[in-house]
Design goal:
The complex is a heterotrimer of chains A (356), B (388) and C (145).
Chain A: E1 2-14, E2 18-21, H1 22-28, H2 33-40, E3 44-47, H3 54-67, E4 77-83, H4 94-102, E5 109-113, H5 119-132, E6 138-146, E7 161-170, E8 177-186, E9 192-193, E10 202-203, H6 209-228, E11 237-240, H7 247-255, H8 259-262, H9 268-271, H10 278-287, E12 295-302, E13 306-314, H11 318-321, H12 328-333, E14 336-337, H13 340-346
Parallel strand pairs in A: 2-14, 4-5, 4-6, 11-12
Antiparallel strand pairs in A: 1-7, 1-8, 2-3, 6-7, 8-13, 9-10, 12-13
Chain B: E1 4-11, H1 22-35, E2 47-50, H2 54-57, H3 63-71, E3 78-81, H4 87-100, E4 106-114, H5 120-127, H6 133-137, H7 143-158, H8 162-176, H9 190-195, E5 198-200, E6 203-204, E7 213-222, H10 223-226, E8 234-243, H11 258-271, E9 280-282, H12 288-297, H13 306-311, H14 328-332, H15 339-352, E10 365-372, E11 377-384
Parallel strand pairs in B: 2-3, 2-4, 9-10
Antiparallel strand pairs in B: 1-7, 1-8, 4-7, 5-6, 8-11, 10-11
Helix pairs in contact in B: 1-3, 8-12
Chain C: H1 18-30, E1 32-36, E2 42-43, E3 58-62, E4 66-75, E5 88-95, E6 100-105, E7 118-128, E8 135-143
Antiparallel strand pairs in C: 1-2, 1-3, 4-5, 4-7, 5-6, 7-8
The chains are: A alpha/beta (356), B alpha/beta (388), C mainly beta (145).
Chain lengths: 356, 388, 145
């Protein structure tokens, strides 16, 4: 679908300060550190603080987005959507907590989305649609997670915490980028899931690759490029979902994007897989450095499965707004490393014990 | 306004009284007070009880009638007064007013607290209710934490040394070792204090008064009839009360306790006395820093010099102004609601010459100082061997 | 089929209740205080009477999100609601407009703590009633780097 008249008014991210190194997790389970690092291409992942959760991350990201949108009065935001798979409540939306924390009006639409790691981009699409149909002036879309992983499972090396927020509005001379087009694919693919009474998710190993991640990311990317009549060479950046440090490079190669177009938005080697925050935060890292007129292909992937592709073109107003809030680099550089024991407290892994 | 005298005093042992219930601990103190003078139970016209939070610690409210019942004085009037750690200092004030006004001739006033029936962390939560629940405790502040903030600021503004805080604990333990009712009867050194477990930096375990059970009681009557009941009545010469903000962050300078300044100035003025006239004092050392601040705010030294006067030994038993000869809250113990009246007991023993190894020579005038929370309430009473 | 239900920390006595928290929640999320229109003094708690000049003309204001540490401590002896969370840093923070409040300091190394250290607002979990109860959020502060 072509768009052209909807843009991003402000963007912001948040990554917690804590990290755990791959070798710390691997040595806990007596695994071969070098093989794991080589396969995943991840050095460490981010870990939420004892007093952080998906809601606190969403609020910090939203506050940063508002810092980059000084012309927006929070009361003008007509819809708030948060995508996550690690909400603190199974029933009670995080969107209302964010609404209260930003001072939104009583008269708004709000809900939480779930579609594994693409829930954040679903929220963006909803906001685009409501702005385009003139239902709202501004929409706030957030992708945030403090993802859980089964201790000892391979996903434990990458399931991390972080989020990004976007204020969506009509394209004008104060938006920092605009959407050229959007294309989504969905199929019922059982690659990764979590049952509602079980604390940790499950996945199907190698099945999560070709039939899931690659099929949908490539499907959405190709679908969008065909619709917009664009080729990989027309894009300056490619930001796919980042479950680890190697899948993004492989899918880029398969689609015909050079590594140099992927590297600027690649955050997984340092902070792991931010799930609903993954491709959105990578996208923000690109926004932190992109120049006017440059074109970005953003493709999220959600297990279950589906992918959302966006073509976004940067506007010159980004130079005015970029420095109004901390950049992704700032969050990547603040780190405190944890031992596995302390990490297990942060992630409530020990049954029967709660920090609060 | 009539003159009031204290004719009988009594205290339970303070400590972890595992096998005793709240009501029994109080009755023990009450009986000792009765036996300390020639008053009979039937002479008592009213009962005033200071207690902070029996409702949370032992799930019992309505202590006035409960203890009047167990004291055997029903249907006489009884009430409970609460002002956090100054509950029985406040109760004493109410009892004093009851007689001074002419409404009563003989009353009993006491205080009691039973804190050890719950785990320590629960006590920490209950104690935080004396602070501002919504704007301090809810955000994670604890009661020792508040005094730790004061200590850090006092050290920053006046150069008070960590060791000077420890000296308060050393002095009070030394005094407490001479007090058979005290919870702790052993002496400690400055190193012991500095090396004890941290409670709220920079305060360590030995900077903090303990969690205790205990009760104290005393009998007040009009001065005109005091000599009928005892040969050594001790007279109330003056009384003063004050408050300060509930939240520490709302004070201009957190090293000053305005409640103490207000209460003590009122008490001195009422008694026509000055700080230099006080021979012995029991002050509220819930934490070592509190005693240092109280030296200053009670007028025993200039602001900021509290650390100096403890270091110079001025507040030892033989010093210029002996403070906390009982061992203070630190060593005697701090069953919250009982402390105010327990301080009165010590001053009465001192002025009667009955303080044994803790005796201050020629003690004529004594002062008790009792605060609640981080100094949000304060009650000061001044006592003398002679009538006003 | 084995179902296990573990209720952690369900001690009703020391846990606040949902409506009481909700009454002040938005003020704690967005750092809204009150200002006396008569004498200009600013407070974190929503007073109706100014303790300084006794005026009843107090209005809501958004407080600045930056400040510095006025005094601090490290809480080691933990209250029951924070039994497994700690030790933690508590401080009185003086905001840029002079208003003071009490808050936890997070993401901070103990060696870096000092009176006068600049800090900024962050949104965090303050606690929860229990594993099945409501979660409550509010203000904490972290060092500005």
């Amino acid at each position: 679908m072509q768009i052209k008249d909807i843009g991003i008014v402000g963007y912001g991210i948040y990554i917690p300060i804590y990290r755990i190194k791959i070798e710390e997790i691997a040595s806990q389970w007596d695994r071969n550190v070098e093989q794991i690092k080589k396969g995943l291409r991840v050095e460490s992942k981010s870990v939420k603080g004892l007093d952080e959760d998906e809601a606190t991350i969403a609020v910090e990201a939203a506050w940063n987005a508002l810092k980059r949108a000084p012309e927006v009065n929070p009361k003008e935001i007509g819809a708030i959507y948060i995508g996550s798979e690690s909400k603190p409540y199974a029933v009670k939306p995080t969107a209302t907590i964010v609404a209260a924390a930003i001072g939104a009006s009583f008269n708004i639409r709000a809900a939480d989305y779930e579609f594994a790691c693409k829930a954040g981009t679903e929220a963006i699409i909803s906001c685009i649609a409501q702005v385009k149909s003139k239902l709202i002036k501004y929409g706030l879309a957030i992708g945030a997670d403090c993802s859980q992983s089964w201790p000892g499972d391979e996903l434990e090396y990458t399931a991390a915490s972080g989020g990004a927020a976007f204020i969506i509005g009509e394209k004008n001379n104060k938006t920092i980028a605009y959407f050229e087009g959007q294309y989504s694919v969905v199929s019922d693919t059982p690659d990764f899931w979590r049952r509602d009474t079980i604390q940790f998710p499950k996945h199907t190993g190698r099945f999560t690759g070709e039939p899931a991640y690659f099929k949908h990311v490539i499907g959405a990317a190709k679908g969008l490029m065909e619709e917009l009549n664009l080729k990989p060479k027309d894009f300056d950046y490619f930001v796919p979902h980042q479950p680890n440090g190697s899948f993004p490079l492989r899918v880029a190669k398969q689609l015909g994007f050079e590594e140099s177009k992927v590297k600027p938005g690649l955050i997984s080697p340092y902070v792991g897989n931010l799930y609903s925050g993954s491709s959105p935060v990578g996208f923000c890292k690109v926004l932190d450095q992109a120049k006017t007129g440059e074109r970005i292909l953003l493709v999220s992937f959600g297990s279950g499965a589906g992918a959302d592709a966006f073509s976004i073109v940067v506007q010159d107003y980004i130079e005015e707004k970029r420095n109004l809030a901390p950049k992704v680099e700032y969050y990547l550089n603040r780190k405190v490393f944890l031992s596995y024991g302390i990490y297990s407290r942060h992630m409530s892994l020990i049954r029967g014990v709660n920090y609060a | 306004m009539r003159d009031v005298a204290v004719v009988g005093v009594g205290m339970s042992k303070f400590g972890e009284l595992w096998d005793k219930q709240l009501r029994d601990i109080f009755i023990e103190a009450a009986i000792e007070a009765i036996n300390d003078c020639k008053i009979d139970l039937k002479d008592i016209q009213a009962l005033f009880i200071g207690n902070y939070s029996a409702g949370t610690w032992v799930q019992q409210e309505h202590l006035g009638p409960l203890l009047a019942d167990y004291l055997g004085i029903s249907p006489k009037p009884a009430m409970r007064i609460e002002s956090a750690c100054a509950s029985s200092g406040a109760a004493f004030y109410i009892a004093y007013m009851a007689i001074a006004s002419g409404l009563y001739d003989i009353v009993m006033v006491g205080g009691v607290e039973k804190m050890t029936d719950v785990p320590t962390e629960n006590s920490t939560t209950f104690l935080a209710s004396a602070a501002d629940r919504e704007w301090e405790a809810f955000l994670g502040m604890t009661f020792p934490g508040l005094f730790a903030l004061m200590a850090r600021r006092h050290m920053y503004q006046y150069g008070t040394k960590r060791e000077q805080l420890a000296m308060v604990s050393v002095k009070n333990h030394k005094n407490g070792s001479k007090n058979p009712k005290a919870q702790f009867q052993r002496e400690v050194t400055i190193d012991d204090v500095l090396n004890s477990p941290i409670i709220a930096d920079p305060l360590t375990l030995l900077d903090c008064s303990p969690i205790s059970d205990g009760a104290a009681a005393c009998i007040l009557c009009s001065s005109d009839i005091a000599k009928k009941y005892t040969d050594t009545p001790i007279y109330v010469l003056g009384s003063g009360q004050g408050t300060d903000t509930i939240a520490l962050h709302d004070r201009e300078d957190i090293t000053i306790m305005k409640s103490t300044i207000e209460a003590s100035r009122k008490a001195y003025s009422f008694a026509h006395l000055e700080p230099k006239d006080i021979d012995v004092a029991e002050v509220h050392d819930c934490f070592t820093i509190a005693e240092i601040i109280e030296y200053e705010d009670l007028g025993f030294c200039k602001k900021g010099e509290g650390g100096k006067i403890i270091e110079n030994g001025e507040t030892e038993i033989g010093g210029r102004i002996p403070i906390n000869t009982s061992g203070g809250l630190k060593s005697k113990g701090h069953p919250v609601g009982a402390t105010g009246v327990a301080q009165v007991c010590e001053i009465v023993y001192q002025l009667r010459g009955e303080a044994g190894k803790r005796q201050v020579s020629n003690a004529e005038i004594g002062l008790t100082h009792n605060i609640g929370g981080s100094g949000s309430s304060c009650y000061v009473h001044i006592f003398g061997r002679k009538r006003r | 089929m084995f179902i296990f239900l573990v209720e952690r920390g369900g001690d009703l006595m020391s846990k606040p209740t949902s409506p009481r928290i909700w009454q002040l929640a938005e003020r704690r999320y967005r750092l809204i205080g009150v200002k006396c229109e008569n004498c200009g003094k600013i407070f974190i708690s929503p007073r109706k009477i100014c303790p300084n000049c006794k005026s009843t003309k107090l209005i809501d204001i958004s407080l600045p999100r930056k400040g510095k540490i006025y005094s601090y401590t490290i809480i080691n002896a933990l209250p029951s609601e924070r039994k497994n969370y700690g030790p933690y840093i508590m401080a009185i923070v003086e905001l840029e407009n002079g208003c003071r409040l009490t808050a936890e300091i997070v993401d901070c190394k103990i060696e870096d703590l000092k009176i006068g250290m600049p800090v900024e607002l962050t949104f965090r979990k303050i606690g929860e009633e229990s594993e099945s109860g409501i979660i409550y959020y509010g203000y904490k502060f972290r060092p500005i780097s």
